[in-house]
Specification:
- By secondary structure, the chain is α+β, with helices and mostly antiparallel strands.
- The chain folds into two domains: 1-41, no CATH class; 46-108, Alpha-Beta Plaits (2-Layer Sandwich).
- It is built from three helices and four strands.
- It has helices at residues 19-28, 54-65, 92-101; strands spanning 46-49, 70-75, 80-85, 105-108.
- The chain has a four-stranded antiparallel sheet with strand order 2-3-1-4, with helices on one face.
- A hairpin with a 4-residue loop joins strand 2 and strand 3.
- It starts with 18 loop residues before the first helix and ends with a strand.
Length: 111
Amino acid sequence: MKLETGQAQVIYDDTKQTAERLATTIDRLGFQAAVVAVKAAPEPTLYVEGITDRATARRVEKALKALRGVTLVTVDTGTQVYVRYDPALVQPRDLVAAVEAAGFRARLGAP
């Protein structure tokens, strides 16, 4: 979510929901929503055990964002973590090590 621009990226399961229905739901909450673009969701970068609530999700996010070269982290409250990073500055093993140093078990997602 980018508060300064008023934009949010939503990753959703298109077998259970549509972009238009999501926008309608957001409108009902009192916010103005418009579908700007729809693209296939990326594969999760990591699967992390122990993300049980927003506080633990923030701990994982903070650990990853501390790495030089990580530009975006999206953590769901399940096990999936999406990371955008510069492979010239950080490697997947570094992502796993950072999450494990924060007290979680992590494994790489599908390539």
